[in-house]
Design goal:
Elements lengths: L2 H14 L5 H10 L6 H10 L3 E4 L5 E4 L5 H15 E7 L2 E6 L4 H11 L4 E6 L3 E6 L2 H14 L1
Antiparallel strand pairs: 1-2, 3-4, 4-6, 5-6
Helix pairs in contact: 4-5
């Protein structure tokens, strides 16, 4: 199994289970027919920056770290480097054109980044349209996004 696929599966397992030990990941994966060592899981957990948080059943469980404004900006920067073709502005609207298949992921990041300012956000396969309540908010967002280009 590829590391990327394994990381996605670990995220899903975290959402479905209260995992308290690395060995639990290994056991659950084994039950699903996926052979993986505890050392591999340990490396994956480190790469994913998993943290321990209080469990509802007592003790602690593994969890994904909360996204901060800074981590969102880093992810937006990566998305811009890998998939954004252009950014344009018109009044209270900003349109971001991407390579095909990239807009949905970028939309999620931009929705988090501009959560307070956005009136609405829409995407298709290769573009994200951000609607702001005012032209000033759109202009401010546009200037920020230009820095990523």
């Amino acid at each position: 199994m590829r590391k990327k696929d394994r990381h996605r599966l670990l995220v899903r397992l975290l959402a479905e289970n209260e995992i308290q030990k690395q060995e639990e990941f290994v056991e659950i994966l084994k039950e699903k027919g996926i052979e993986v060592t505890q050392a591999t899981i340990s490396r994956d957990m480190k790469e994913m920056n998993l943290i321990k948080v209080p469990s509802s059943t007592g003790g602690y469980k593994y969890s994904l770290p909360a996204e901060t404004a800074e981590t969102i900006k880093v992810r937006i920067n990566r998305a811009f480097n890998n998939s954004v073709l252009s950014v344009k502005i018109s009044a209270n609207q900003v349109i971001v054109k991407t390579i095909p298949g990239s807009a949905t992921a970028l939309k999620q990041l931009l929705a988090k980044r501009f959560e307070e300012e956005l009136f609405g956000i829409f995407s298709d396969d290769d573009g994200v349209l951000l609607l702001f309540a005012s032209a000033g908010q759109a202009s401010s967002a546009y200037r920020e996004l230009e820095m990523f280009e």
